Amino acid sequence: MRPYEIQDAESVFKVVKLREIAETTISMPHPYPRETVDWWINFVRENMEKGSAYEFGIFLKDRPSEYVGNCGFVSVSNQHNHGELGYFISPDYWNKGYSTEACSKLLDFGFSKLGLERVFGRCMAKNIASKRVMEKCGLKVEGVAKHEVLKWDNYEDVFHLGLIRSEWDYI
Ligand SMILES: CC(C)(COP(=O)(O)OP(=O)(O)OC[C@H]1O[C@@H](n2cnc3c(N)ncnc32)[C@H](O)[C@@H]1OP(=O)(O)O)[C@@H](O)C(=O)NCCC(=O)NCCS
């Protein structure tokens, strides 16, 4: 996992433009305009400098030019010391444990380096894989917000999951 560079734009576009990625993400546009990727990479880099979000590209260990997906804190509140998880993986690499590996590294980073008190995430109730990823990383379901999201003309129920520092210490 590493911070994004503007040269990553083409690889990122190949993934974010896919319908399979947009379908279960809460706010990803579809179709995804190519120029938005450049804007997004700059946005992510600026956020990291400000400390308001930390998103990383995931690449294969033995083929570092191969972009697998994204994992990060899409927002960090310095006031409340919490961070919200966000991630996606290219469908070519689904169900190989990449998202779980990346999220678990991110939790280490969030609790140890950023000193967060709480990490949380949200996923559509139908997104079984995402809920499973968060649960495998130790997050617990805190509730379900019915019809929280209007996605492609359907209201979707959304699971809220969270983990606080003292619970993470015991994982
Ligand atoms: C959600 C997502 C990131 C998961 O990435 P991944 O790298 O495939 O996740 P992992 O391989 O680490 O773990 C997936 C787990 O879900 C399970 N799973 C996947 N689909 C499932 C299904 N239909 N029913 C039951 N379990 C399922 C897998 O078996 C695995 O669990 P296991 O290790 O206990 O067997 C990926 O599917 C994705 O990018 N989806 C589109 C974007 C998205 O939804 N992002 C999250 C928004 S909240």
Automatic annotation (TrEMBL):
PANTHER family documented for this protein: [RIBOSOMAL PROTEIN US5]-ALANINE N-ACETYLTRANSFERASE, GNAT FAMILY, PUTATIVE (AFU_ORTHOLOGUE AFUA_3G00765)-RELATED-RELATED
InterPro entries found in the cross-reference section: Acyl_CoA_acyltransferase (IPR016181), GNAT_dom (IPR000182), N-acetyltransferase (IPR051531)
Family: Belongs to the acetyltransferase family. RimJ subfamily.
Keyword Phosphoprotein: no
Keyword field: Acyltransferase, Transferase
One term of GO molecular function: acyltransferase activity, transferring groups other than amino-acyl groups
Protein name: Ribosomal-protein-alanine N-acetyltransferase
A Pfam family reported for this protein in Swiss-Prot or TrEMBL: Acetyltransf_3
All residue ranges annotated as the N-acetyltransferase domain in the record: 16-162
